[in-house]
Specification:
By secondary structure, the protein is of the alpha/beta class.
Length: 369
């Protein structure tokens, strides 16, 4: 059976475009060793191995040594949701990942800490479900960060207010978040009572992939288990303050009863932006619309005369906190861009030094000192 005809791969999101991409990449990424070569999708990512979905079922897999040594950054390594080229040794032995197909979308954040490096949280995602719990976890400033990265990824974001059964006024919470997240759908759900799950299901369609994102303890795994109808993912009891306990330790793609695909992710205690210019503009599109009325085209909305954005804050049409967060994230992206330029320059210098040392060694070996 060819990849184009595969029922199992189709259930994981395989289509004609992926088949064409596989045909284009196959010749450059195919292993030289014997074994069956085929496409597969990464359904789970662990510290030193992967689980990939193949036509014959899920298999444990490892990276080929050549691929591991060829990658320049973590961003290039396969992650949950990626389509990869694998080989299965004759007799059902080791499954090896030799390359990945170009991504259609990727949710990328800066790694935690001071390192200037990207981390791909999930790949080839159609919908980004951004979960925040009621009533204790609601932060529109944090939602702006998730939305910026979600729009940048190429996925369509949806804000999901979880634990609605713990809130005394769900409608007010919905109104507050809808007013703060311009142009994004917002729904409230309860995994305990089932409220809102029908609305959530409208975003989960067969062979489409969604990723569930959010802070630790907002009930992501409990929600996934409710959608699955079983205790597939481990959960922990809710604390006295209504907040959950973090339990998910790795990213995993699961297939729901209606045939849709969902990636559950560990809670993010820190969410730093990466490259997100387009995502930033989409998240704050309401400010861009207001800015059309500014006197100066390059108005920074920071005290310039006849600034329509500042006037909107004074009139009460725009929350002062939203403009303040726009300034904060804009400064953060500018600082990150400078750090990325510095890191790229340092990598270039290191590469040149390495090439110079290698050339000097070859000359010494050939001609002597």
């Amino acid at each position: 059976m060819t990849p184009e005809q595969s029922t199992r791969l189709a259930s994981l999101g395989w289509d004609g475009q992926w088949a064409a991409a596989y045909a284009a990449e196959h010749s450059t990424a195919s292993p030289s060793s014997s074994g069956t070569v085929a496409p597969a999708r990464v359904v789970a990512e662990h510290r030193d191995r992967y689980v990939v979905g193949t036509e014959e079922g899920d298999r444990s897999a490892v990276l080929a040594g050549r691929l591991r040594h060829a990658v320049v950054s973590r961003e290039e390594l396969p992650t949950t949701g990626d389509w990869v080229i694998v080989s299965v040794a004759d007799g059902g032995g080791t499954t090896t990942i030799h390359g990945a197909l170009p991504r259609r979308s990727a949710f990328v954040r800066k790694v935690a800490g001071d390192a200037t490096e990207a981390q791909v949280v999930a790949a080839n995602v159609d919908v980004a479900l951004i979960a925040t719990a009621l009533p204790a976890d609601l932060s529109t400033r944090r939602l702006d960060r998730y939305l910026t990265l979600a729009w940048e990824s190429g996925a369509v974001p949806v804000v999901v207010l979880t634990k609605a059964d713990l809130s005394d006024d769900v409608e007010s919470a919905l109104a507050e978040v809808r007013a703060a997240v311009y142009g994004t759908d917002v729904i409230a759900v309860s995994a305990a009572t089932g409220a809102g799950l029908e609305a959530l299901a409208s975003y989960l369609r067969p062979a489409r992939t969604a990723v569930l994102l959010g802070s630790s303890g907002v009930g992501k795994s409990t929600l996934v288990n409710r959608l699955l109808g079983n205790e597939h993912l481990r959960t922990a009891a809710v604390r006295d303050d209504g907040r959950g306990r973090h339990t998910t330790t790795h990213r995993e793609l699961v297939t729901l009863a209606n045939g849709s695909l969902l990636i559950d992710t560990p809670g993010m205690r820190e969410l730093q932006l990466w490259s997100a210019d387009a995502g930033f503009e989409t998240t704050f599109a309401d400010l861009d619309t207001l800015a059309e009325g500014c006197r100066f085209r390059d108005c920074a909305h920071a005290g310039e005369p006849a600034c329509a954005v500042v006037q909107a804050v004074a009139d009460g049409r725009l929350a002062a906190e939203r403009l303040a967060h726009w300034h904060q994230l804009r400064r953060e992206l500018a600082y990150l861009a400078r750090k990325q330029d510095q890191a790229a320059a340092a990598a270039d210098r290191a590469r040149i030094r390495s090439l110079t040392r290698a050339a000097r060694t070859r000359i010494q070996d050939k001609y002597g000192d």
